[in-house]
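Take a specimen:
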Amino acid sequence: MTTLIYNASMRHVASIALLALATLLPAACGSNEPDVKAALQVTEDVSGWYDMGIVNGQNKLVPEIAFRVKNTADRAITNTSFNVVFKVVNDQQVLGSSYLAGIDSKGLAPGQVSADIVGRSELGYTSPEARVQMLQHSQFRDVEAEIFAKHASANWVSLGKYTIKRQLITQ
C-alpha cells in the first residue's frame, strides 16, 4: 500500500511564521476608516487542492482558497492585508499560511467587491499515487482555511473559516 505523506517536517516553519506574525500585532490606532471586521464580508470562495506538480519524484498537492471581499460599510476602506492560515480540521497542526497584500491605498469603495484574493500553502501532501487517488486516500486529512484581515496598524481579525474542498485545482 502506498503511503500518503503530510509534510510534517515543515510544520515548525509554519509555527515560527505564525509566532512572528503574532509579534507584529500592534494596538489599533485611530482611523477615519471603518472597522475591518464590520466592513468586510467574504462574498465567495473557491477552494481545493492545487497541483504543485512533481516534487522530489512525487505528486504534491497543497491547499488553496480564492476569495473576494465586499465592503459593507458606508465609507471606503484602504490598506488592508490578509493572511490565510491553513490547519488540519479538528487539529492544531498548521499546514502553512499565506500573507496577501489585498486592498491597496486606492481602496475599496462602499458596496464594491474586490478582485480574487488567492491564498495557497506551501505545505501539503506528497505521494507517488495519482492526484485524484491522493484525495481519496485513507491518510488524507481535511484542511480548513481561516482568513484574517488587518487594516494599517490595527490588530488582525478573523473573517471566517472555510473547509478546503476535496477537488483538484490546476490553474
Observations:
- The first strand starts at residue 5 and ends at 6.
- The two ends are 30 Å apart (CA to CA).
- Helices lie at 11-23, 36-39, 131-136.
